[in-house]
Design a protein that fits this description.
Strands 2-4-5-7-6 form a 5-stranded mixed sheet, covered by helices on one side. Strands 1-3 form a two-stranded antiparallel ribbon. The protein has 3 domains: about 100 residues, no CATH class; about 70 residues; about 160 residues, Heat Shock Protein 90 (2-Layer Sandwich), CATH 3.30.565. Helices cover about 60% and strands about 15% of the residues. It is built from 11 helices and 7 strands. α5 packs antiparallel against α6, α8 packs parallel to α9 and α9 packs antiparallel against α11. The chain is elongated and about 130 Å long. The chain starts with a helix and ends in an 8-residue tail after the last strand. By secondary structure, it is α+β, with helices and mostly antiparallel strands.
Length: about 350
């Protein structure tokens, strides 16, 4: 706190002595004292008041300065009492003790919420792993049932129903996978390994993992120019690409539907050099008004409200995980023509150690 600010805030401590000095000078003059005596009396009273304010400022300046510095520079406000020394005057001590009490209560609440979040995350991860077992068993039983279907008209109808059931099981498995990655997205550092991977392999793995979805929607995948190597985590990137593939399949427009994966090197030789992977489909796209919100959690837009069973979680997770890994992501679209998502991989390896 500056001296001028302190004096401004301490005006009652100066105004009252000044009024008292004027009154004393008036009484002295009325009592027969000379004007010089009255002036000296005023100077003594006002000077004492000013000296008291200056001494008070000197005593409080250190505490105020530390407090102001912490407010501007501290990384977390809840640590403020650890960075400021307790003052030696009554009102400052009371304020410091109150601040410390509030800080302790807030830290306790934060610790409790973190513990609850950790317990919930571990529960979700355990539940996902447990839920995968009956799903795997259901897939196996479904395959056995499909092999036992007779080769006649009744068998064809039964085979179509079993295939539809398989697609629904895949959809359930996809939702469970979303829950797992959503829970893990808060603690990416525990399950994150950066290595060099070819985009050809990453895209190929994602396409194979979602082959049934693509075939069910009659979407043809194409890979163009994926000869670049990027630094990322294989498992997380496969999931991200899988979400984009599933999103494209969900909004495919009948025959001739396709999804194209292309890559290119951007800003070569500059500090912003990066490799961009574009996932482009010729589906229904989104409107210009919906485009800025496609990565918002729970946002489904006009297309998602027309029987597509959209959850608004897939693209939100794509954006969230890309942000966690330090990748850029953006969307482009034209309603009724295409939808494209572009992921940028920085080529500077030091980026991943920041």
């Amino acid at each position: 706190m500056k001296l001028s600010q302190f004096i401004t805030s301490s005006w009652p401590h100066l105004a009252l002595p000044c009024l008292g000095a004027i009154l004393c000078a008036f009484i002295a003059l009325v009592g027969g004292a000379s004007a010089g005596v009255a002036v000296i009396l005023c100077v003594i009273i006002v000077g004492a008041a000013v000296a008291g304010v200056l001494l008070d400022y000197q005593r409080k300046r250190s505490f105020y300065a530390d407090l102001a510095a912490c407010i501007d520079d501290i990384e977390h406000p809840l640590w403020i009492t650890e960075m400021v020394d307790g003052p030696d005057y009554l009102e400052g001590r009371l304020a410091y003790d109150a601040l410390r009490t509030v800080s302790k209560a807030a830290n306790d609440d934060v610790s409790e919420y973190r513990r609850q979040a950790q317990d919930y995350r571990e529960y979700v991860e355990t539940w996902v792993h447990e839920a995968k077992s009956p799903l795997a068993a259901a897939h196996l039983m479904l395959e056995n049932l499909m092999e036992a279907v007779p080769a006649d008209e009744t068998g064809e109808r039964l085979l179509g129903k079993t295939e539809a059931l398989g697609e629904e099981l895949d959809r359930v498995e996809g939702y469970i996978e979303q829950a797992l990655f959503f829970a893990r997205s808060e603690s990416l550092d525990r399950d994150y390994l950066i290595r060099a991977y070819g985009l050809q392999k990453l895209v190929g793995d994602a396409v194979r993992a979602n082959a049934r979805v693509l075939m069910g929607a009659h979407v043809s995948p194409f890979r163009v120019g994926l000869d670049h190597t990027v630094f990322t985590d294989e498992k997380w990137m496969t999931f991200i690409l899988g979400q984009l593939i599933q999103n494209s399949a969900k909004y495919a427009q009948g025959e001739g539907a396709e999804i194209v994966f292309t890559s290119r090197l951007i800003d070569e030789g500059r500090s912003s050099e990066r490799i961009e992977l574009e996932v482009h489909d010729n589906g229904c796209g989104v409107s210009e008004s919906d485009l800025p919100r496609v990565f918002d959690r729970g946002f489904t837009g006009d297309n998602g409200r027309t029987g597509k069973r959209a959850t608004g979680i897939g693209l939100y997770l794509v954006k969230r995980l890309c942000d966690k890994m330090g990748l850029t992501v953006r969307a482009d679209s034209r309603a009724g023509e295409f939808f494209a998502v572009t992921i940028g991989f920085p080529t500077n390896k030091m980026h991943y150690f920041e």
